[in-house]
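input
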Amino acid sequence: MVTLEVRIGKLRLKNPVMAASGTFGPEYGELVDINKLGAYIAKTITLNERVGNPPPRVVDTPSGMLNAIGLENKGLDDFVKNKLPKLKNIKIPIIASIAGVNAAEFGKLAKVLSRTERIAAIEINLSCPNAPYSPRGRRACPNVQHGKRDFLIAQNESATRQIVEAARKAASLTIIAKLSPNVTDITRIAKAAEEAGADAVSLINTFIGMAVDIETKRPVLGNVTGGLSGPAIKPIALRMVRETYEKVKIPIIGIGGIMDYKDAVEFILCGASAIQVGTANFVNPRASIEIIEGVKKYMAKHKISGIKELTGALRK
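output
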């Protein structure tokens, strides 16, 4: 008998497949049975409303796409009062995704959401390439800033540790730290998140990239740069998952160009306990469901009874 059940901290999933935050809204319920997923991850929310980045916000690239949405959302209160009630038909665990500009904001978000009945876990978005962190606590500007004052949280061990500790102190729920690949050594950031109390890390988020219109001689994206996702980043994502698996003891949720079950199995072999599907959802709304079915058939074919037997089983 094949079982796909996975445990991430206190979170028990019936299978290891989730759709990445911001890529799979409740409207997909008109096309697929969302309750077949392991968990539902909501779009990232901030404490206060964010208007997001100027358009154009999305552009196709070879083997992928760039997006610069800028975490547009109406804030925490709106999510609790208006968004969550619309998820009443979702019976699987709901994971909230949060972002902020300082530890106090992350802590407040985690505290409120941990007291919200429908939320089963919190994913801390430390790595959105369109929402930099300010160590001085001021509002993050909408563009990526690579200076002394602004940076992605997941580019700094100290900032990562500070934010995860704030969320861990505020919430008893499972805490997942979502990390950026835009670093020299992602294992150091993952280790900092683990030491600060994260129950798991999810990696990788998108790479910072850009596209150029040669006719106008201007960047295609209104934000100039955006996050590159899709099959183009999969080989690097696999390498980072494998390296992190060798350094941390907490579960890893693999992300990055997963389009079918074969991709998912590759991530699991490299050390992922679960996976998230992102760009594939825009190409095929049924991608996540097909991946669940494909992984199960693969396991049956190879006489593998549980996901744990696959996790990290890559042969050298």
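quick obs: The domain at 6-310 is CATH 3.20.20.70 (TIM Barrel).
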